[in-house]
Amino acid sequence: MPAVAVQPEPGQPAAVQPDPAAEPVQTSGQSAAQGSTQGGAPASAPTTVVQISGTRIAARGFTQPTPTTSLSTADLERAAKPNLFNTLAELPALQGSTGRTTSTNSTSSGIQGLSSLSLRGLGTIRTLTLLDGQRVVGANVTGVTDVSQFPQLLVKRVDVVTGGASASYGSDAIGGAVNFITDKKFKGFKFNAEGGQTKYHDDEHGTLQGAWGRAFMDDRLHVTLSAEIMKENGIDSPGFGEVGPNGRTWFKNSAYQIRPLAQTTDGLPQYTVIHHAQQFQYAKYGLITNGPLQGTAFGPGGVPYQFQYGSGGVPTGTGAVTNCVNPFCVGGDLSGSVGAGTNLAMNLKRQVGYARVSWDLNPDNEIYFTANWAQVKSHFTPNPGAAKNANLTIQCDNPFVPASIQAACAANNITSFQYGTANANFPANINVHPTRTQRRFVLGADGKVPLFGKEWSYDAYLTRGENTTTINVHDITLNARYNNAIDAVRAPDGRIVCRNPVAAASGCVPFNIIGDNPADPAAWAYIAPPNGPRQHTTQSQDVASFNMNGEAFQGWAGPVLMAFGAEYRREKYQVRGDPYGAGVDDLSPNSALYPADPILNSTVGNNWYAGNYHNGDGSYSVREAYLELNMPLLKSERWGEINLNLADRPMKYSTAGSVNTWKAGATWQTPVDGLRLRAVTSKDVRAPNLSELFAAPVVINNVVQYQGNTISVQQRTVGNTNLRPEVARNSSFGVVLSQPSWARGFSASVDYFDIKVTDVISALTAQQEVDLCVAGNQEICGAVVLDSPGSNAVTLQNFNLASLHTKGVDIEGAYRANLKDWNLPGRFTVRALATRTLNFITNTGVVGTIPSEGAGVNLGGTPKWKLLAQQTWENDRMSFTLSQRWFSDGVYSNEYIECQTGCPASTIIHPTIFDNKMKGATYVDFGGSYNFSKALQVYFKIDNLADRDPEPAPQANASFAINPTLYDVVGRTYRIGLRGTY
């Protein structure tokens, strides 16, 4: 776990710092240079000016108003994580980040395997992630970066800017920015080797990293190289049934049991959270779900038996089951449950190679070139089988139907029956394989030049970034082929063939889903061909940037500091899906892999069970410039020092037009010993991304309710090039106490934040668009045609309709002490960081909805309280650290009304629920290290020491009923490693 609250000398590892009891402690937002001037650092010590990422100004003595938390090399090493993403995701301000334990139940989202950071729960698309202050090409069409693609061993500091940073860095920094800062002129050799596994002997993982740097030609030529490989084996699916993987016993098949709204006038709640939920619309190997034979299940060899319903349920013959609420009973035969079959963690492999070469033109100026190659591969199972929830019709004359059931059909005068199955006889589970490959090159120059009679710093660079993403899905079925293969008939010559003659003529092979029967390899190859869904995406990013900062002139209270610059950026993408998913008229380029098939829709596509990727492309460019000023307003021994910080950045997008961002903040170093006040307000933006502007088109048929009638429409999903940027107003006010003379070694800060985002880009359903048009929204009316029978259409697009509003309090604190003052060995540090989310309000802008409160909803990513604390004892030879990660109890939804009896009638907006409490969690970690020498260290780490189980997270269907965004779903994990620097 990182030491997060306050940091000494952010650019330096702990090994080169002076005695912590005598050194200054940096509070968030304070530059390292200022920190070095407090607390009696030797006057002869060299001054290092370090730019903190919340601002473009880098100067000795500058204190920025934007709260920023810095993690040093020592913090990152102490966390002992195989991926820096996991270290950062534990910070309280980072909420809703995505990693290898999230989206494991998704086939088509495109974000699987992404390690992307989210601040304030506002989403990864509203957090700007930088490398050395520079943008990195997106690893997804939404533009978000993948931290796994960064050269992590060379990272010497990470700055987390917990306030709006658009005026400094441009679009996407609504929630803030995370800046990874590398050691640009590393000299020597360093390595890290680490390995471990969980208590359950799974998720075995290993990391090997190495970096080398050297100076040549009288210290003018600097070469730095690094390479790293990391493999995490993941936690595989246990398959079907209520069985957690590898001995985990906490999975309970939790779900919502939801009574019909019209029945809630009886004073009882509509929602009840149940465990051991049994979906009675299918069984492991098949279940008749309606009619006189309802409740007949099939086992080995297709032998029929009476299905055991939970809750003492009895089938009614109408599809319902007594004592059960559709679609769930409680208990009974759970062998066909699919919820536990989702991987808890993906198998992930990351490989990164990085090089930096620089040439010093003189002692103050250099030119440099960096190259980064990174590849991240992952694979996982989103679900076992392919459950069919009572949506199949089996003909009684199907030769796979047992003779006893055929006789029962005749006796009951029926020719078919409704059927559901988990398809557990499939020989393999669906498996998804995303691979992301990055190639990034930077050519730049930085240094110092005279300007306005002063010495100014500059930085200029050109960037070319490319990311190729390929997603391959294996062992997944084609819907039309499956439906035709299971509908078999006996031919006159006695053979079992597909009933549809067109399908039979095009290669259909009958597939038996009546009971547990070995799958016919030929039939499996027909319904799940070896070339499954495939998506290939190429993204590119070109950037030209120029930045300068320095002293503009001498003001009445001190030097006026200025930073200015300009940037041009171009983003482009192209995505291609396979013909069966995307739908194309001409299959000839892919005829060998995806041959034409008359029963498949070759124009629309959407033929796969899941993973129907479509084609799309688009690009946009942006030109921007910025100016930032820091103006001392007061410098008085009596009243202290006041600085005003202003910034402005106009931006012009080729698609979204012009938009302006700005920042205004101030700091007051009060005359009270160690007390500083800070405040900042800003206008920040997020421009629409490539996916929102140029979404791959999809066309399907649908129905909507219009003027009291049900009408058929053609539903067209496309991008919207008329989208406007999202606009945020981000304000914070804070109090900082840093190293007062009466509490040497103590620092703390408290900051209140308030973020309002309008014109939020969001997608609507076809019915929601119709309702909004009827309500008078003319922008939406332009996307619907409702009065032309035969030509009615609804175009699904993203619109600037929604809004977000979050506010809360950040608290940081640290205390360092040299225990020799108490005649004890070593040094002791206590650190803590907490975020209290007061509100997280989402307004969809949709007719018939109300703003919803997300703070404290533990099914989401924004608990009311989130805490990270750490206690460390260390000396020159060893260290031990105890850490605590905690978030508070919450609810399933703030819109629910909790009651057990005497409940009001439920409404769509405010349903009633029996119990609306979802517990929080506390995780305790323990780690330590031992130094064999100044250069060599062995370390260990145990995460989730008590093996705390995740809380059940009920869904409307019994699938993946956990929340990996908040809860640790992996369990106790052991790691041991060796690192060295020479």
From TrEMBL:
Biased composition (Low complexity): 26-46
Membrane association type: Multi-pass membrane protein
Disordered: region residues: 1-47
Top-rank taxon, per record: Bacteria
Protein name stated in the entry: TonB-dependent receptor
Gene3D superfamilies: TonB-dependent receptor, beta-barrel domain (2.40.170.20), TonB-dependent receptor, plug domain (2.170.130.10)
This protein's UniProt keywords: Cell outer membrane, Membrane, Receptor, TonB box, Transmembrane, Transmembrane beta strand, Transport
Residues of the TonB-dependent receptor plug domain: 64-177
Domain TonB-dependent receptor-like beta-barrel: residue ranges: 413-945
Family: Belongs to the TonB-dependent receptor family.
Subcellular location, record wording: Cell outer membrane
Main localization, broad class: membrane
